[in-house]
Design brief:
By secondary structure, the protein is mainly α. Helix content is 76%, strand content 0%. It has four helices and no strands. The two termini are 64 Å apart. The mean pLDDT is 85.
Length: 106
C-alpha cells in the first residue's frame, strides 16, 4: 500500500493497469540459450565450490586478529554484566539511604 501511494507510482498508468488487471499475466519462458547459459553457470559454480571446499587457508595475522576480537568481545560482555550489577547495587543502596534518612528525620 505504501508503494502504491508513492507520488511517482500514483501517476504511472502502467502501474495502475498492473494493480487492476484481473486476468492471469503471461510470462515468457526462457529460450534454449538462456537455459543452457544458466546450466553452465550453475555447473561452474558447483565445480568451483567443490574444488575450493577442501582448501583451508591459514593466515596467522587473521587468526591472531580473530582471537583478539573474540577475547575483547568476551571482556566487554563481562564488563557490561558487572556494570549492570553495580548499577543495581547502587540503586538499592540509594533506596536504603533514603529510608535511613526518612527514619532520622522523624
Amino acid at each position: 500500500l505504501r508503494i502504491a501511494a508513492h507520488t511517482k507510482l500514483r501517476e504511472d498508468s502502467n502501474f495502475r493497469v498492473f494493480l487492476e488487471y484481473t486476468k492471469d499475466l503471461k510470462v515468457r519462458s526462457k529460450n534454449k540459450k538462456e537455459i543452457i547459459g544458466g546450466f553452465f553457470k550453475s555447473m561452474t559454480k558447483n565445480v568451483d565450490e567443490a574444488m575450493l571446499s577442501g582448501q583451508k587457508e591459514k593466515d596467522e595475522f587473521f587468526i591472531e586478529r580473530k582471537a583478539f576480537l573474540e577475547d575483547y568481545h568476551n571482556k566487554i560482555k563481562e564488563t557490561t554484566k558487572k556494570s549492570a550489577a553495580l548499577s543495581t547495587a547502587t540503586n538499592a543502596l540509594s533506596v536504603d539511604y533514603m529510608q535511613v534518612a526518612g527514619c532520622l528525620a522523624q
